[in-house]
């Protein structure tokens, strides 16, 4: 089974964030901003641990009728957020994709 991968990236303000990509290269989860690479790596570990558990997801409807979700750690902190989806079923499929790809241990460091 093909797994997705993580990409560590540097933002314009030098903060670090990561994205989780599905096997097809599509970004399915984006992290918060971190001040250090170590903190971002801990965020990835948290996604790897929490992503398989359906109860760690919070599905929300935006004011424009689109849907998005957050993946939360056990302490209820948001560790990753999805893109917007036109439908609830699209967001549900996004959650399934994060559940499947989140445990991946493939990490590409694009900050160097």
From TrEMBL:
Pfam families: DUF1508 (PF07411). Gene3D superfamilies: 2.30.29.80. InterPro entries: DUF1508, UPF0339_domain, YegP-like_sf. It comes from the Bacteria. Residues 11-58, 63-109 form the DUF1508 domain. Residues 103-112 have a biased composition (Basic and acidic residues). Belongs to the UPF0339 family. Duplicated subfamily. This is YegP family protein. It comes from Photobacterium arenosum.
